Amino acid sequence: MNVPFLIAKRYFFSRKKRNIISIISNISMIGVAVGSAALIIVLSVFNGLEDLIREIYSSFDPDLKITAAEGKSFETDTEFMNRIRNTPGVAVVSEVIEDNTLLRYNERQMVVKIKGVSENYFEQNEVDSSVVEGSGNLYLNNKYRALVGRGVQYQLSVRPNNQFVPLQFLYPRNVNFNPMNPEASFNSLEILPGGIFAIERQYDDSYVFVPLNFAAELLEYGRRRTALEIKVAQGQRIEQVKRELQTLLGQEFKVQNSDEQHTSLLRAVKVEKLFVFITFAFILGIASLNIFFSLSMLVIDKKKDIAILASMGATAKAIRNVFLLEGALVACIGAAYGLTLGMLICNLQQNFSIVSMGIASSVVEAYPVKMKVSDFVFTALAIVVITMLVSIRPANKAAALSVTENI
Fold it and tell me: Where in the sequence is the domain holding 117, given as residue range(s)?
């Protein structure tokens, strides 16, 4: 029989509802419940945002991306490409040339990112499924076509159905600038717009897809490439294929998975989530101060009970445990209510999208949420640690009471 727990439970479920100690204990429990519920909700929103970022970029990003460790391009040849294609787990290898260029259309112009891609690019990428106007085919009727982002279309008033006005790309040549003939310092190529895509504003406002050979000619890249994008075969582990490619290519190349291609953005979300957890832990600590006050008052109120227990042979450790368990009961019941409430609210948001993002251009209408078991575990651990810390002093004070002075 656990006597300290029985006594602590008796104190907690005391029927003296008007007792100020019971009122403070209930306030403490409510504070812990609200704090833990809020923490679970906020952490779940951060989880949802993290998944939303991955979902948005998944239609644009490859499973693996090979780039040069130094510089923005690297040389390729048939042997080099065959070594990569023959790597176990590699299903598709797409060649990519990407750089900034000046784009003119009619009387308007802007700087865009031109992305030249090989013909097999759309076998591993869903950009063509995001075409909202025209065609996503870059080789239409054996002629080169460009796939333009919706934001670029708005800026330049591009009309893909107008086959008489081409897009004109200009890129500086690697020659000395001639002020008498400035146009000679630029390569200039024209291509007709074939379609308009809409993925996410970051891409829509700056990207234009063109055939690989068109980009290579404009940028004078020859066999140089800025990246190779890899589709991993179905059933193969991406991390395993990544390690094999990195071993094959050595330190001169970087092989990145989808998350590593957006390391800074995902790290920012994780850091914000960590600081939110720490902030709410402090709020829970403040809410738990009520537990400290209620236990301190309980020790004063139960001096005679403590003295009687000690005279009957209860050790200082047993008396200390009574009040530690009393604090634990308040915190655990409050946490149980709070975690349940947080889970309920997150489920309602997932199923009914109660809280809207409030942004007309947002890719989702409501705040995304995703609950993780780890968040519940860490929240519960934080509550246990905080409760133990605030309960130690009142418990020690109870254990140190003099028997002769309080009987």
Answer: 64-257
